[in-house]
Amino acid sequence: MTIGLAILIAAVLFLIDRNHVWPQVWRGVKKTLKVVVVLAVIGGIVWGLDIARDKWIEARDARRAAEAEKVTEQKIAGQWAALESLSNAVCGTDKEIAVVMPLYEDVVHYFPDAGEAACVPNSSSKHQFASSEMASIPVPGCKVLLASYPQFTCQTAPDPYAAIAAQVPPTNAPRTKGRQFLRFTCTYSGVLTATQLGSLKTGEVGLNDLVTLLENNELGSIKVRTASGQIGWTGDSCFEVVYRDQSPVSKPTPKDGCVGHRDSTGACIAG
Length: 271
Description:
The chain is α+β, with helices and mostly antiparallel strands. The chain has helices spanning 2-19, 22-84, 87-91, 139-148, 160-167, and strands at residues 95-99, 115-121, 152-154, 180-184, 190-193, 201-205, 210-216, 221-226, 231-235, 239-244, 260-262, 268-270.
């Protein structure tokens, strides 16, 4: 390929020299160079204008995006300010309202359209708080919050009597005479042990936990069962009775319908 091209160029130069047309060739070359230079200049101008247009479009889009983000931030800041204005009515003077949000969101660019609201200390930094800081919203405060933000739910203290009701058997079911339900009233945790004087831990109870009394030694120790099924001994000083079942033990009716006993003839005798 290279040899053939070299032969072709040599043949062209030979013909030009043989026919003495070098002046005409030179004039053609100069015209060609002028055309190439003009085209190069025009191409450079067009290329430069295209680059400038792209940069102008990028700058315009960035400016519009920044303006839109600023508007969004101002809107969200207003939404948070409106929510915070209800803090005194919902949580009191020493706390403010906080809403649980997804971890990947922040309060500058996001206002939740749903979530659980709670009360946190005023010292919490820009809605950044630990779960241990979250406190229940009082029922009156929850009503105030939901009147303005029905999309939220309130973290409220559990109703202890609802748990009691769940453990109370139906009226037509056999009951254990004298069964008692107790509530733990101390702020610290109570430890359940396997024996009255032992230290082998079988569970623990916390503030407002409900337990069923299984045994009372009348010496300050009681055996209880927690709602999760943990059974153990603990001191009775931190418990109060919240429900006492006084119903007598129901005797099941025999399949043959005889409540009592039968004599040698098979007759049913009550008692």
